[in-house]
C-alpha cells in the first residue's frame, strides 16, 4: 500500500527526514509516533507527494511518488492535523464540494453522503453550518470527508487531539470499523493509549529517523521492564536513594515522582509497606513508558 525507501528531506542545513524506510500492508492500522519536530508530518507529506524528497524512493498504491502522486491520491483519504473545513458551507455541502475534487458526479456523491453522515453520527446536522459544530463534530466530519472517494488508504494526522474522552472513543470505534472493512490506515498520534488500542504495528520516529518498529506488545517487551511502580509524595526521593537499587531494575526520578521499573513489583511493594507518607501506583508497563525511554522526557517545541 505504501513503501518508503531511504527517503531524505532537508530544509536548508537541517535534515528533517533522514533515510526513512517504511512499509504498510493492506488492511492494517500502522502508527507513526514521535515527539514534536520528529519529522512525522513531513514524512506524511512526502508519502502523499505534497513535498519533494531530496533522495529515496516512494511508492503509493502502486504509483511512483511524487511523479504520479495525483493518480495515487485519487484512492487516498486524508484527515489533516488541523481542521480545514469550509466555514461558508453546511455539513452536507462540505462533503458534496470535496467529492467534486475527485471528479465524482454530484448524484454519486449525494448517494454516498447519507451513509457517511450516519458513520460520523452527524445525520441530524446535515444542514448545520461549520461554526455551530463542536470540536468533536468537526473531527468526525473531517473523517467522513476523507472517505468521500471510498479510499483504500487513509492518512490520519493526530485525529483526536483536543477532543474530550467521549469524542475520542467514538472516533476510535469508527477507525476500528474501517480496518474491519479492509481499509488501511496510517496514523500519527501523541496519545500512546490510542496507538496501543488501534495499531497493529508502530514505528517510533525521532530527529528524522525511525528508531524502533514492531507491534505495541513487541516494543513493550523489547525495551521496557514489565512492571512499573510510580512513587510520589514527601520522601519519595529519599526512598529511591535508600531502596531503589534493591527494589528496581531501573529507577528514574522526574520532579518529585520516582518511577521504579522492575521485573518483580513485589520487591518494591514490600519496601513501601508501612510508609504512609508515600503514595504509589503499581501497574504494567505500557507504550508511553517505551516512548519516553526511547525519545527522552525533555520538552520538545
Quick gist of this model?
By secondary structure, this protein is α/β, with parallel strands linked by helices. Helix content is 37%, strand content 28%.
The structural class is: alpha/beta
CATH level-two architecture of the largest domain: 3-Layer(aba) Sandwich
The percent of residues in helical segments reads: 25-40%
CATH fold call of the largest domain: Rossmann fold
How many DSSP helices? 11
Distance between the termini: 32 Å
Give the strand content: 25-35%
> What's the CATH class of the largest domain, please?
Alpha Beta
Helix and strand sequence: EEEHEEHEHHHEHEHEEHEHEEHEH
Biggest beta sheet attributes: 6 strands, mixed
**What's the β-strand tally?**
14
- The neighbouring-strand order within the major sheet is 6-7-8-3-9-10
Show unreliable segments: none
